[in-house]
Each structure stands twice: as structure tokens, then as C-alpha cells.
């Protein structure tokens, strides 16, 4: 307390006293694990439920076309041949083109306004799609990655990605329930699916407009003491984190796109999404090809996604605890390949349905891991924002591929589509092995002191090294 009294003798004593008090409070947080846990829990409760709700509903809207297809969508809109596949495909094109620009915008606009605006626009689009009379009528990862240290990130991303599984469960149940309204008011079941699920997304978007938090540097729900401690904590994990949020500039994005780790993130997420979107959009149709009714096919997608969601979170907790990523990605791809082979090669409906379990929880183990692993390997807002945007953009190419390789004429085994999924998962395995081997080699070089010559650079130049700094170690 003597230091505080002495500080008060200066003209700017109040400011200096506040700084000293914050430093003392920060040291208390650093020494008290219970206090650190309390602040992290406060952040989790403010951030994760909102983004989980948003992503659940928007993903539900994305995959509900699979449920709508078994409730007279193609018949009412006079669709034939590849028409349904083209409708699924069209969605992904703007997603691919606008993902990086979107991350540049969210870096300049309050996330709650931008994300809320996008969710509201999407919800309205889905709602009005229910009025279609012909075929022609028919950003969150970056924010989460900025709030958590590397060893805390995967489990949060898993909770975010479990939205896919929650949406999968809800999609099956809502598809069955809303589809059963078929004929109500003179409208087919697919119309009710679009109307109700789209309206739910609009409501969630309005909630986000008011309650979604900003980036850590601009947060207002933490006390000044908590915020000061938390920013210091993040900086120790990210040597390139400044006091103020860096803005994503086009020059920095283009420079980041030359980094092999960023490019690898695209290959990895593409490898995941070909299978993930195939399972999400076409699973009801595949189940119907077993000879099962539309209602049964919708309902039986739900338990598959529930199991995969639980397993993905448990694996994420394990991954964060042991600070390893590659081995879990490798296991996920191999398990999913085994499941897809079951679906493609067996003719018994029950065995093929079991294959969907293995295929789903294997690929959904990989989904948060590959994004989090690639974010773990880079430093700075620009490169982190580029990694998440580029990976997600490449993932949507997987959506286009899945839309093209599952035409109904290939039922009931869907050999071309499932073979394509397996081929991309093999590509994912190769990308995992490449990332793991190179990062392990580079860590050994740094442990041996072969990058220590970089310490002779000025402090300012060392700040710009990012993950090239000799103190940085890549996640394996």
C-alpha cells in the first residue's frame, strides 16, 4: 500500500494509482487459480451460448433442405435430375467468395452488429424460401479464436461446432414434426420447415444484436481489473497481441495466404467438409433409400448427431488436456473412413445405419480440431482471421462437391459420392501428417537453439516475427 500512497503525490497520481492497483489485482488473479477460473467462466457464459445458439439455428437452416426434400419439395417445384443438387450447390458460392471480406468487416464493426445482421438476413431468406413456387425461388470462429489461449481453444470450438450436432438432432425432429403438417393450410411439409426454422433464426439474430460481446480489447462486461489481467494473459500466449486490436488489411491477408500453414488449413477443412456436408444434407435421402419412410428417416438422423456431438466434446477436452491435435485428427479421419465404407459396401439397412454413427463422430471429431490446430499455429489478428476465413471458404467448396456427387440416380449405395468423401479424407490424413512432421521438426530446431540468432533483432522487430519467434512452439 506504500506504493499507492507515494503515487498519489504526483499530479497524475490518480491515473498511476489505478494502474498500480490493476497490476496488483492482476498479480492476484495470476496467483489464484480459482479467480482465473472465475473470469474464464464469466467469458464462457457470455460468449459461447450466444454463438452456439446462432450457429445451431443457421446450420439447421442450411441442412433443412435435406429434410424438406422428403416432404414433397422436388415434386411441388417440378425438380428433376440434378435440380436438387444445384439448389444445394448455389448456397456455397457466395459463402466461398465473401468469407475473407466478412472477417475484414467484423474486424472493424462491432461483432454483434455484423453477425446479427448476417443471421437476420439469412433467417429472412430461409423464411421466404418457403413461398417458392419454382426451383429458381429457392463469422464466429474468428471471434472465439481471439478470446482464448491455445490450450483453451479446442474445447470451446468443439462446443461451438457441436451446434452442428444439435442442429442435426433438431433437424431430424423438427423435420419430422413440421413435415407432418403436410397439407395444413394447403401447404406442403417443406414450406412449414422453411417458415418455422427461418423465423427461429430471425429471433436469434435480434438477440445477438444486443448481447453478443466484442473482441477482448473492446469488451465491456469484464471489470477493468479483469480486463487488464485477461489481456496480459492473452499476450503471454500471443507475442504479437497489441493493446489494441489490429485491423485486417488486404496486404496482410495476401501475405498470410502465402504461408503454408494457412494453405494447409484450407486443405484440412475441405477434407472435413466434403464428408460433413454430405452427411448433413444427404443422410435423410440415403436412409429413405433403405426403404424406410420419410418420418422414420428424419427421426433416425437425430441419435447419430447426438452421439457425435457428445464424443466430439469429450475428445476436445482430452486434446486440450494433453496439448495434442494431430493424433486426434488422424484417428477421426480413420474412424470416419471406416463408417463410410460400411454405408457404401453393406446392403443391410441396420449395418449401413451403424456406419453413419462411425462416419459422423469420426468427422465431427476432426471439425473443431483442424480449425483450432491451424489457429494454434499462427499469431496475430490478421493471420488468425485469414486462417479461419480461408479454411471456412475452402470448406464450402466441400459443400459444392458434396452437392454434385450424390444424385438420386446413384441410390441406394451412392458409390461415387461416398468414394469421393473417402478420397478427401485420405487427403486430410496426408495434410495432418505433413503439419505434424514439419511442426515437430521446427520445434526441435528451436529447442536446439538454431533460431536463437533472431533474438539479436530489436524488440520491435521481434514483435513482428509472430510464430517465427524462437520462443514460440507449434502445437503437435
From TrEMBL:
Q: Which PANTHER family match?
A: PERMEASE-RELATED (PTHR43791), TRANSPORTER, PUTATIVE (AFU_ORTHOLOGUE AFUA_6G08340)-RELATED (PTHR43791:SF36)
Protein known as: Major facilitator superfamily (MFS) profile domain-containing protein
- Secreted among the record's keywords? no
Q: Where are the transmembrane segments?
A: 82-101, 153-180, 192-212, 260-279, 299-319, 326-347, 353-375, 387-408, 414-437
Domain of life per record:
Eukaryota
Localization recorded for this chain is:
Membrane
Q: Does the keyword 4Fe-4S apply?
A: no
| Membrane topology value | Multi-pass membrane protein
Q: Which Pfam families match?
A: MFS_1 (PF07690)
Q: Report the source organism.
A: Sporothrix curviconia
Which InterPro entries does this chain map to?
MFS, MFS_trans_sf
Q: What keywords were assigned to this record?
A: Membrane, Transmembrane, Transmembrane helix, Transport
Amino acid at each position: 500500500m506504500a506504493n499507492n500512497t507515494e503515487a498519489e503525490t504526483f499530479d497524475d497520481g490518480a491515473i498511476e494509482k489505478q494502474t498500480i492497483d490493476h497490476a496488483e489485482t492482476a498479480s492476484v488473479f495470476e496467483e489464484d487459480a480459482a479467480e482465473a477460473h472465475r473470469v474464464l467462466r464469466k467469458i464462457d457464459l457470455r460468449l459461447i451460448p450466444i454463438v452456439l445458439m446462432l450457429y445451431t439455428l443457421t446450420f439447421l437452416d442450411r441442412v433443412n433442405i435435406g429434410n424438406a426434400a422428403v416432404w414433397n419439395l422436388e415434386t411441388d417445384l417440378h425438380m428433376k435430375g440434378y435440380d436438387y443438387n444445384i439448389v444445394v450447390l448455389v448456397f456455397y458460392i457466395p459463402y466461398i467468395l465473401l468469407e475473407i471480406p466478412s472477417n475484414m468487416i467484423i474486424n472493424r464493426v462491432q461483432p454483434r452488429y455484423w453477425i446479427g445482421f448476417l443471421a437476420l438476413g439469412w433467417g429472412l431468406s430461409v423464411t421466404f424460401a418457403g413461398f417458392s413456387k419454382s426451383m429458381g425461388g429457392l463469422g464466429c470462429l474468428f471471434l472465439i479464436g481471439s478470446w482464448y489461449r491455445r490450450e483453451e481453444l479446442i474445447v470451446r470450438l468443439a462446443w461451438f461446432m457441436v451446434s452442428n450436432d444439435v442442429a442435426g438432432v433438431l433437424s431430424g425432429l423438427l423435420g419430422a414434426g413440421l413435415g407432418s403438417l403436410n397439407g395444413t393450410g394447403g401447404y406442403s411439409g417443406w414450406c412449414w420447415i422453411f417458415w418455422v426454422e427461418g423465423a427461429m433464426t430471425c429471433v436469434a439474430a435480434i438477440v445477438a444484436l444486443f448481447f453478443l460481446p466484442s473482441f477482448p480489447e473492446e469488451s465491456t462486461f469484464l471489470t477493468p481489473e479483469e480486463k487488464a489481467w485477461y489481456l496480459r494473459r492473452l499476450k503471454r500466449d500471443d507475442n504479437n497481441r497489441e493493446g489494441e486490436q489490429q485491423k485486417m488489411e488486404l496486404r496482410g491477408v495476401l501475405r498470410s495466404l502465402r504461408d503454408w500453414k494457412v494453405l494447409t488449413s484450407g486443405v484440412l477443412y475441405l477434407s472435413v467438409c466434403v464428408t460433413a456436408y454430405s452427411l448433413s444434407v444427404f443422410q435423410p435421402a440415403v436412409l429413405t433409400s433403405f426403404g424406410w419412410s420419410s418420418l422414420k428417416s428424419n427421426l433416425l438422423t437425430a441419435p447419430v448427431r447426438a452421439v457425435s456431438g457428445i464424443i466430439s466434446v469429450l475428445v476436445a477436452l482430452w486434446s486440450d488436456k494433453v496439448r495434442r491435435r494431430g493424433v486426434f485428427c488422424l484417428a477421426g479421419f480413420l474412424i470416419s473412413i471406416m463408417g463410410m465404407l460400411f454405408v457404401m459396401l453393406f446392403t443391410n439397412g441396420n449395418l449401413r445405419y451403424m456406419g453413419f454413427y462411425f462416419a459422423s463422430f469420426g468427422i465431427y471429431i476432426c471439425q473443431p480440431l483442424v480449425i483450432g490446430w491451424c489457429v494454434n499455429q499462427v499469431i496475430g489478428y490478421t493471420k488468425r482471421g485469414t486462417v479461419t476465413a480461408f479454411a471456412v471458404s475452402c470448406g464450402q467448396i466441400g459443400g459444392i462437391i458434396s452437392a454434385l456427387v450424390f444424385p438420386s440416380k446413384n441410390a441406394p449405395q451412392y458409390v461415387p459420392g461416398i468414394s469421393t468423401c473417402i478420397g478427401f479424407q485420405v487427403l486430410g490424413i496426408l495434410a495432418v501428417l505433413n503439419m505434424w512432421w514439419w511442426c515437430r521438426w521446427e520445434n526441435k530446431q528451436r529447442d536446439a537453439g538454431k533460431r536463437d540468432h533472431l533474438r539479436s533483432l530489436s524488440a520491435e522487430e521481434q514483435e513482428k516475427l509472430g510464430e517465427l519467434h524462437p520462443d514460440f512452439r507449434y502445437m503437435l
